[in-house]
Amino acid sequence: MEGPRKIKITVFGPRGVGKTSLLTAMSEQFDRTTQKTVLMLRPELKTSLIMQDKRAELKSCFDNQDELEARGGIKGTTETQDFEFSLVKAGMDASVKLFFKDFPGKDLISDIESVTNLLDECGIVLIAIDAPALMEEDGRWHDLINKPNLVTDYFKTAYQNLKEPRLVIFVPLKCEKYMRQYPANLLNRVHEGYSSLIEFFDKPNLRYHVVAVVTPIQTLGNVEFSRIKVQNLNGHPYPQFYFRKTNTATYAPRDCEQPLRYLLRFLLKIHLEQRFVIWKYLRKALGDIFEDIAFKEAAIEFAKNCKTTGGFAILQDEEGWLNMSRCGRR
Ligand SMILES: Nc1nc2c(ncn2[C@@H]2O[C@H](COP(=O)(O)OP(=O)(O)O)[C@@H](O)[C@H]2O)c(=O)[nH]1
Ligand SMILES: [Mg+2]
Questions:
Q1: pLDDT in the model for residue 234
Q2: Which atom of ligand 1 is found nearest the CA of 57?
Q3: How many domains does the structure of the chain reveal?
Q4: Which of 53, 118, 189, 323 is the 20 to 30 A CA-CA neighbour of 235?
Q5: Is it the case that residue 153 has pLDDT exceeding 80?
Q6: Could you tell me the distance, in angstroms and rounded to a whole number, from the CA of residue 291 to the centre of ligand 1?
Q7: Per mean pLDDT, which range of 47-61, 206-220, 314-328 is the poorest?
Q8: Full domain range(s) for residue 258
């Protein structure tokens, strides 16, 4: 059922990149990092069940084997799994629904019309990036796995007549090794690997609408890329990425709540925006949630701590959609 106050977000990424793991860890880390602000992310029942399974799966990675394979050790999910949360302030009725729509196709290939619709109705887009494919062997596997050209084409079709602001979050995953070594390198490679998409966002008709950021996320933590085994898939070479546990090997997600911080920061600004009459989705979906002072202050508090260094970056924000100076008491 599509009601009001449903902020739609889509998560782009090939199967097995870690989208479901990311959403699971995101919700967990949100709860852990918001104790002071008393904002809560309440999963719907179905979401809660998916997360429960995923969490058990992720934790079991650390049970026995020294090495794990990203697609084999535990398999990437084959069916699409949408996630739905209510963002609520403790002790209050006020809430807003966050609806994360999984990418519909296998390995990013889907019919252009459904992707265009998805991009049209989702105010916020997460592009999940397989970091080892981007980084290892000079990015040899990036095109095959992350399909940056296809992703760019989807955006070019969907955003050509864009009239409302959009938040696009590049999310490198499985990036433990690069975050420990040279986070700046990872950021450079995102720039290179998605240069045509980033250039497209910078076009005069899009520059003021599209906000682009990079938030690298470690959903497992304490595992690092170790090697690639090239397999033969229908006559073509196909990589399998292996990861090794580091010496303190427990499930330790890091920075997973960062996309939510950016999301709230962006929504706060949308709330302040006066030109909303022409907007189809975002402003309407927000309703009057931020009119509630307590909710708004909790949101401001949470949104303040967006990371912008050490691999994190704001790539584009011409119009200041992430600038919090007018958002209220700080
Ligand atoms: N090393 C590492 N592996 C991860 C991370 N996140 C997910 N994985 C692995 O990626 C695989 C696929 O995860 P899943 O969330 O089902 O992918 P989805 O198909 O995109 O939803 C699993 O085997 C996870 O163990 C991460 O941050 N680091
Ligand atoms: Mg999944």
A1: 86
A2: 25
A3: 1
A4: 189
A5: yes
A6: 38
A7: 314-328
A8: 6-326
